[in-house]
Amino acid sequence: MIIELNNLINKSLRITRDLPMGEGRRPLEDVAYAEPVAIDFYLTSKGEKFRLTGSFKANLKCNCSRCLSIFDNEVSEEIDLVFVPRDVMAVKEEVELDKNDLNVAAYIDSIDLRQVIDEQVILALPMKLICSDDCSGDLVGDSDSKEVGDEIDERLVVLKDIKERLLKKNESQ
Ligand SMILES: [Zn+2]
Questions:
Q1: Among 20, 43, 111, 154, which one is least packed by beta carbons within 10 Å?
Q2: For residue 48, what are the CA distances in angstroms to 8, 38, 54, 74?
Q3: What is the 35 CA–ligand 1 centroid distance (Å)?
């Protein structure tokens, strides 16, 4: 779902719906959307600066990284994101990576809500997906249980990398 921003400058928009994420879409290799994502978003604008707030709930199918079984997982998140035009963002690029920067994104003309949800799901999930605390790690059955996902978006790989670096940074403090 692409929100074109040109007509929304200095306006606001409420977006409440169950958003189908599309067949085979995966925010991460081991994570798939089980059903449409319930979103309740509010988009406001001050000139060319947009702010997206609200919440969403995503039901996910995850592959346990220990036993490879598929388990259900729910991600419910509040969001508060700021979108600035790409040329404004470019000025900030030299600034050191900061956790707050994950809440600011650049846009060109539009915001892709599915991409926003992908990113928020990645940030919300733990680094290691384990089906339960007492997962034995015994492989359940066979390779059938491991779903082979579509190639994941390169941008999301970058985001995952940023997250790993942030976690390491936080641990070392
Ligand atoms: Zn497991």
A1: 154
A2: 9, 27, 20, 34
A3: 22
Query: How far does residue 139's CA lie from ligand 1's centre (Å)?
Result: 8
The CA distance from 173 to 162, in Å, is 17
How remote is the CA of residue 148 from the centroid of ligand 1, in Å? Answer: 17
Count of structural domains within the chain: 1
| Residue 149 alpha carbon to ligand 1 centre in Å | 18
Between these two residues, 173 and 118, which has the higher pLDDT value? 118
DSSP bridge partners of 34: none
Q: How far is the CA of 58 from the centre of ligand 1 (A)?
A: 20
Average pLDDT over every residue of 43-66:
95
Kindly indicate the confidence band of residue 127, based on its pLDDT and cuts at 50, 70 and 90.
Answer: confident
Ligand 1 centroid to Cα of residue 130, in Å, is 5
For the residues 74-83, what does the mean pLDDT come to? 95
Looking at the predicted structure, is the pLDDT value of residue 52 above 90? yes
Domain that holds residue 97: 2-171
